Signal transduction histidine-protein kinase ArlS (Lactobacillus helveticus CIRM-BIA 953), 519 residues
Amino acid sequence: MTKNKNKETKHSSLIVRWVSIVALTITVSFVIFSVVVYQIVSRQSLDQQEEMSLNVVTTLDRTLSSIPDELEISNVIPSLSPATRRILKGEPAISDKDSTNNAFSDNLIASISNPDINAAVYNKHGEIVFTNGNVTPKFKSFKEVSKNELVKRNGHQILLTYQKVYSSVNNKLTGYIVVSNNMTYYNSLMKNLLHSMVAISIIAIVVFVVTSYILVFNVVKPIKRMSKVAQEVNADPNSGARIKELNRDDELENLATSINQMLDRMQSYIEQQKQFVGDVSHELRTPVAVIEGHLNMLERWGKDDPQILDESIKASLQEADRMKHLIQEMLDLTRAEQIDVQYPHEVTNVYDTVKRVVADLAMVHPDFEIRLDEDDLPQDTEIQIYHGHLEQVLVILIDNAIKYSTNLKQINVSAGLTKKEVNIIVQDFGEGISKEDQKKIFNRFYRVDKARTREKGGNGLGLSIAHKLVDSYHGEISVESVEGQGSQFKLTFPLISKKKAAKLKKLNENSELPKSNLE
């Protein structure tokens, strides 16, 4: 119970870590994005406020620069139009005594009519000469011709603009202009924007965390399944536990499929190993017992009898030779079950291979007439198989035909082509096989006539090897036989196009997989 709780805790902490990482990443990204947007809006709005203040300063400077002497109340007031004076004093811009045209022709009206703008004019000694409204922006010395300064008062930002006034007559410094912009709209805008962005950020973070949890859980859940299956198989290699269908078309589905295939292959290898050990222990028991019997007989009294000594030595050597062939055949059978790993891209020319095998066996068995009919097979016909394996299958079939031939020592081999398949037939005119035996001849160690097979040197593995090799290359092997008349074995392989053959050859050239010799 404690172990299970620890595992669940680990899995939960894994989900929490992944959710935290994903949520933190998204949150930081969103916060950075929000800060950037806030700064952009702030900068653009501030530029507008600076432009507004600059317009006021420029208009005042243009009016006051016509004064040649130091700015004073006596020369500043007359320089300003009546409408401007009234605005600076907080009075209505238009008087009953002024005409409409004179009132609105004044350029300062539009510049300083904004309630956020407070303007003040100072002389060279920093003494106030003129101001509008109840709030007078304070003066402080500055070196530049003009200067902008942001200050914070009562939680709001205020823009102060300082401007030196030079006389257009003699270019002398006559005074200073100070404009204070309360930026009411800017402060309200940025405050509302900040509140909105904080609220949106909180909502977005919550949504991101929930979404991240769902997404991460959706990813971690199948990983937990895979981990559980891996632990079960690790505890019991013979376990049939497999990852269930994830029903998702993504990399995790592919990974689960690959793991299941790997586990199937691993268990297949375990079964092969068990079967190999079982077959070896079963089949070697007889020859070992025979050799042991002869040796015991020789040890007791047979070594003094030359005839018995000679017979025992020959029998032992014969059994030893049979053991050697048996072990080789079992190794071949085991390797034949790993074709898709060792020979995934091999391509073989059927015409050349069949012709070569028939010619070789005809030379080895001159007492047999081995005929070849390849008229229906184009010379460039290719199938996906390692050439050594196709040779081995043909040798097994022709060798069997020779072993079980009777009076008519003739073997017919034919090869032909259909639209999608290549067919190879090996026919003999020997003993034939009963219908009952035809169903079993491809089983391991099955022999139709055990006594005669032992005389001919067979172990009952040849057709099993042939069947496994053909099946590994997605082909088929079948038999038709009539007792007393002979047998006909038929091989069928899928035909591949020239384009696919070229692709497989190229892949085979680039492959570095080791090839084991099965011949």
